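task queued by scheduler; priority normal; single chain, no ligands, no partner chains; default sampling; output format set to structure tokens
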Amino acid sequence: MDKHRTQLILAIALVIAAVLALGTSIHALRRARQVSSAGGASADKANIIRFAKDPEMAPPFLLHDINGGIVSTADWKGKVVILNFWATWCPPCREEIPELVKLQAMYRDKLQVIGISEDDDGPPKVQQFVKMYRMNYPIVMATKELIDNYGGVPALPTSFVIDPQGRVMTKHTGLYEYEVYEREVRVLAGLPVDARIETFADTGQIFLKNAANATELPDVDLSGLTAAQKKEALHRLNAEGCTCGCTLTMAQCRINDSSCPVSKGAANDVVKRVRAGQPEPEAPPAAQQPGARPQLQQP
């Protein structure tokens, strides 16, 4: 009897460990994204460059790189900067690194690529990776403050493209083609390029804090609402946290990842409740509030 009970307990423990491991893996894969765009560019608009209409200054920082050198936003003036958040465990990150290396070599007098590693293992592992990939630009280990200042960076890779005046012109989340970055670098560096420039208001596409300024959200049906109802719906969508694990508000999640089925369903449910005149539900538990980074269980 005791033997069977012990076997049952061990079996349950193994199942729990497997579930926790799967959850951790899913979270990591969710953060590693193939492609998404701040400006919403598509393949049929390959020669269109989209920059923020009223770009904000890049949040300043001064940190040591993995070799002990100093990396500071104060040293960026006069060059285009690609600030690339990445990690060694992220497949799309690894795929785009050779292209960033190529860009840095090709435009070294006009461009500075800076890698922000979100690896938890510390500089030694990252140094080995940098050597293996022959990365020719400085790498800084991410801090919570740095990540928060740049909007939370809920997916990797994420790159902020900064002009020579230090303004964040656009953001790319996911794996992008070399030509996309090259066109943007050439425009911002004042070099000739065959492309048309369009501008967009940042309603969360660059800095997620600006999602509160959005009047429309991807795949959220706000049609038929009165002005007061639409205002109430947007207020709720910017106040209620998404439950997909992203730690963002529903509005931020819709803007950051329009493919997320959780925020899509939940956001449209909010709109339905507003349309029906139903009161706002109680706030979710503190662990689900937007802005809190998830605490992943280890298997």
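post-processing summary
- The first strand starts at residue 35 and ends at 37.
- The radius of gyration is 22 Å.
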